[in-house]
Specification:
The complex is a heterodimer of chains A (465) and B (99). With 465 residues, chain A is α/β, with parallel strands linked by helices. Chain A contains 17 helices and 22 strands. The chains are: A alpha/beta (465), B mainly beta (99). The interface between A and B is large, with 51 and 44 residues.
């Protein structure tokens, strides 16, 4: 079966992917946007096409969420092909993508690829985090975005970062205020952030005002807040019943965790792209230049998948990657590419001004990266931190060997969720920096697929299944 | 665990969760249907049989694995509900059944 041939494949339809695909199509590139979800928006703008329009302010999600509407509308108005419900499960270095949709598996050959796989929430391994009833803050937001669902009983939010306050405000507006917020930002973060505040004050005044407004809104609604909470644990038999911290305990039906977001690097790691440990954001990120170009000539990365910068910045880097793709494929003169990039870079600089402050203010406390020994690190294979440490003692030099020793990272999530923890615990156990320890080298298929889907690759399209 | 916001969109879809009919907002995922049906624990792990429920709802964690229209081990957070969809919990590991 010969692959479909196109100029540009964009993987992921969040702000970066939407902007990249739209811009590329407008520049005359034969473009396909591949989206695992069934509608554009990614996670940040999930369900955006079902949301009320901007004039009707009835959504508790707020106006920033509605900023996704024009991005999705622009994609629909463009000549870019949009393939929802399509999982990319393998990419070859020559630009061949193996994709799976409801009709089965097939290949697409792209002259260039823009990965816009976005961010995931940093795993928050605390005692009891595998209990049913413990979820992420982002999960609760997704239920609100896609189904207008809100927590039914007593919910507790714990962690830190701008998203905690945004989600809490959204739940307040939706008539389901949390029973308690346990904020985990360590006191020393405030000192570190104070030094950066002056520099960010003017360029980031809009974001700062917005953040403070959210905190005021949540506190004004009477939601109790415990600051500098440590020693968090989810307790219960078979499901969450109570949430404990050093100095307190509360009955709860739902515990929502959040310690910031990190790049979703499953595909970029599997492709063998060069990655670096980001000591400010405490995460791995692929090495990319100012256009998003990576160590692999066919592949660029845009948006939070290249480092956390937020939704507005993601759309901007998506446009930059599209401009570069057009120049590389001779649809745009390089000088014209640079000219068009200038206002985008200016806007990007404005968006990035607040990042050093946020990174310092919401830097996760050490136990988020290296949890206590009895905590489950790998949820799929039920491997504890102590077992990872034992693997290190027995001679496993890094996460990929720990896999063979303990089966960590070998379950269905393929190490997506335990990767950050296993790297940090191995580094701690061996007394080496994380940058030296490395992280998992995931392999295709990027998502589990059935043998039937795999076998279907060789069949002609008319042969059926 | 979760309830529908009364002010939310009126469009709904009927699905079955563990054989019971449940009305779910259109656009929601199969994982949301499980939660709306009051199920906190939606699967048992393949290793120890421990109860688990959805964690991330964005396709990362694979905790929401469920049986959807007879197909086991589906990431239920990535499947949008459709009329008559049959959603069941995932019990432990899948047993290979010779056809």
């Amino acid at each position: 079966m010969t692959p479909q041939r196109i100029d540009l494949a964009v993987v992921g339809a969040g702000p970066a992917g939407l902007a990249a695909a739209t811009t590329a199509a407008d520049l005359g590139l034969d473009t396909l946007l591949l989206d695992e979800q069934d509608g554009p928006g990614g996670q940040i703008y999930r369900g955006i096409e079902r949301a009320p329009d901007g004039r009707n302010k009835t959504t508790p999600l707020g106006v920033d969420y509605l900023a996704g509407k024009p991005l999705a509308a622009a994609l629909r108005a463009s000549r870019a092909g949009y393939l929802p419900g399509t999982t990319v499960w393998h990419i070859d270095a020559d630009g061949t993508l193996s994709v799976l949709d409801k009709n089965g598996s097939r290949t697409i050959r792209a002259r260039r690829i823009v990965l816009a796989t976005g961010a995931m929430e940093r795993p928050v391994p605390i005692p009891g985090w595998t209990l049913p009833g413990v979820m992420t803050v982002g999960a609760a937001q997704i239920l609100l975005k896609t189904g207008d669902l809100v927590p039914a009983g007593r919910s507790v939010l714990t962690g830190q970062g701008p998203l905690i306050w945004l989600a809490a405000a959204q739940l307040v507006r939706a008539g389901a205020p949390p029973a308690l917020i346990l904020e985990t930002a360590p006191h020393r973060n405030y000192h570190a952030a104070a030094r950066l505040l002056l520099r960010a004050l003017w360029p980031a005044r809009r974001q700062l005002a917005k953040g403070l407004g959210l905190i005021r809104e949540v506190r004004g609604a009477g939601v109790p807040v415990v600051r500098e909470a440590v020693g968090l644990a989810a307790l219960g038999r078979g499901r969450l019943e109570r949430v404990a911290w050093n100095g307190g305990e509360i009955a709860a039906d739902l515990l929502l965790l959040h310690e910031g977001v990190i790049p979703n690097i499953q595909i970029s790691l599997a492709l063998g792209l060069e990655h670096r440990w980001d000591a400010a954001q405490l995460c791995w990120r692929p090495v990319a230049d100012e256009w998003g170009a990576t160590s692999l000539p066919t592949v660029a990365i845009a948006g939070d998948g290249a480092g956390i910068a937020g939704a507005e910045a993601a759309a901007l880097t998506g446009r930059l990657a599209a401009l570069d793709a057009a120049a590389l494929l001779d649809k745009l003169d390089p000088a014209e590419r640079d000219r068009r990039a200038r206002p985008i870079r200016k806007a990007l600089k404005r968006e990035l001004a607040i990042r050093p402050l946020l990174d310092a203010l919401y830097r996760p406390a050490p136990p988020v990266l290296v949890p206590p020994d009895d905590v489950v690190a790998c949820r799929c294979e039920e491997v504890t931190v102590a077992q990872i440490r034992r693997a290190a003692r027995l001679g496993a030099p890094g996460p990929n060997q720990a896999k063979a020793f303990t089966r960590c990272g070998m379950g269905p999530c393929q190490g997506r969720l335990c990767g950050p923890t296993v790297s940090a615990v191995m580094a701690d156990a061996l007394g080496k920096p994380i940058a030296e320890i490395g992280t998992y080298r995931p392999r295709a298929p990027y998502k589990p697929i059935t043998l039937r889907a795999l076998a279907g690759l060789g069949a002609s399209p008319s042969a059926g299944s | 665990m979760f309830r529908k916001r009364p002010e939310g969109s009126a469009a709904t879809v009927w699905v079955t969760v563990e054989g019971r009919e449940v009305q779910v907002p259109a656009g929601a995922s199969a994982a949301a249907a499980l939660l709306l049906a009051g199920l906190a624990a939606t699967r048992e792990t393949a290793v120890s049989g421990a109860a688990r429920g959805p964690y991330c709802l964005m396709g990362v964690c694979f905790e929401c694995l469920a049986e959807i229209d007879g197909v086991p081990n589906c990431q239920s957070c990535m499947v949008t509900i459709g009329p008559g969809m049959a959603i069941r919990r995932q019990h432990g590991k899948r047993i290979a059944t010779p056809q």
